[in-house]
Amino acid sequence: MDTSIFLAKFWGWYLIIFFFILSFNPNRIKQIFEDLKDQRFLIITSFIAIIVGLLNILFHNIWEPNWKFIITIIGWIALGIGLLLFIFPKGTAKWLEFINIKLIQVLYVLLFLLGILLLNSGYEIVPY
């Protein structure tokens, strides 16, 4: 299986599942931001984000103007947030919380739409 197709399916399902988890249990978001105040949780989270971002970039660093670009950007965002959380933990946590509070509805819709787009690209349900 092509790496792009695999990652489109992976990130598509991940984003859809994450969308439904946050939709049906919005208190989970508050819990995550409370947990980011704990240094141990913050370090583990930043390491996981760095690892996921690096693996995504190493296996899929494609800068074509199509759906493959979205997968590459997801990897770079994961790596960037992981590095920022590790280097500047308190400032990054406050910045993420500010963005989350102000743009929560937009983020939900974007998660859902990106997930649908990537799943469609991976499974080719609707040709375009």
Description of the molecule:
- The protein is mainly α and 128 residues long.
- It has one domain (3-121).
- It contains 5 helices and no strands.
- It has helices at residues 3-24, 27-35, 39-59, 67-87, 89-123.
- The model has no long low-confidence stretch (mean pLDDT 89).
Could you list some keywords that capture this structure?
mainly alpha
Would you summarize the structure shown here?
With 128 residues, this protein is mostly helical.
List the helices and strands and how they pair.
Blueprint: H1 3-24, H2 27-35, H3 39-59, H4 67-87, H5 89-123
Helix pairs in contact: 1-5, 3-4, 4-5
Low-confidence stretches: none
Relative strand content: under 5%
Specify Rg, calculated over alpha carbons. 15 Å
What is the helical fraction, as a range of percent? over 70%
The helix/strand order is: HHHHH
The tally of strands reads: 0
Distance between the termini: 21 Å
What kind of sheet is the major sheet? none
Shape estimate: globular
Count of individual domains: 1
| Helical run tally | 5
Structural class: mainly alpha
Mean pLDDT equals 89
